[in-house]
Amino acid sequence: MDLFFELIQISLGNKETFDRMPSDKEWQALLDLANKQSLASVLFMGLEKVLEQPGVNKPSVLFEWIGVHQTTTTLNKHQNKRAKDLTEIFSKQGFRSCVLKGQGTALYYEKPEYRQCGDIDIWVTKDGKCKTDDVRSEVLSFAYFRNLHIGHVDIKHSDISFFDDVPVEVHFLPSWMYSPWTNKRLQRFFKEKADRQFSNIDEQLGFAHTTINFDLVYSMVHIYRHIFSEGIGLRQLVDYYYILQRSTEEQRSEAFKTLCSLKMQSFVGGIMWILMECFGMNIMYSLCPANERHGKFLLSEIMAAGSFGHYDSRIKQIDHDKRFKRGFSQLKRNLHFVTYYPSEVLWSPFWKLWHWCWRKRKGYL
Questions:
Q1: Which domains does the chain have, with CATH numbers?
Q2: How far is CA 70 from CA 43, 58, 306, in A?
């Protein structure tokens, strides 16, 4: 087995030790790949376990790895504080809020402080029958009058600079689908589950975060969306691994039915293959039978892209293209997925044209 996936399994408690101990050069390569996938601190758990075994020499990268881990734990504490601050800011303006992914997902981990954090994604709404468009307008008006920098605005979220040290994405919708029919089902799911999410407040941390039932669907959809844009990272799969570990059989069964209604069963089967084959996950936690064909395809995409596609030359080129060329480049890249996920790929140009017109009409371009 690949040393990197052995280290993942050791870190997750699914393997005792390496089949053979890595050399110093291999330890450096493991750290480099862990950084590429935003997993350095999570995999530090595996390194700690290996070093507890008798006769194991400390690798030369140990102190570098410790430094990365200590930085991650410090950032997590600060991120939790900022999530609380953000919750209080919105609450004072009459908004209900809920942290998506990130600091909420970290709570499923064996050691939450080991999860590498990024920006803060926060979903906001208002009580009553306030429409999404109204919430978006109120949030943007509030940010404008507070002289906060407003970056990208789209139908799902807006980048707003509440803090100098932590990027913030304010969500008006948790996610979306290109296909109008599957998107309608997804938005219905979000609407049905919304109140429970905004009420799921962790009094100790000071912010609301999503529930297991919600995350089993939402986090899988989030991973699915990434394959069509920034690329999937292994950190997202580790997140989902821990979500599954905390779920019940009934919750998994209900989630899979919802994901099937979104035409995602083959994708889900591919993710389950990776989690069982590469992470060593017990089959009892799987949402469905593994799909090896989709799993191998997704794994090749993941290893090429790194976390959020930062190492994928195809995505880097798209990011540097001008707006219209970028759209065509993205479509060309996504055609690579058409035999695997035809509905989303074929609907994407129609959705993107509609979305561009919507943003133009709203003045968000």
A1: 94-210 (3.30.460)
A2: 13, 18, 22
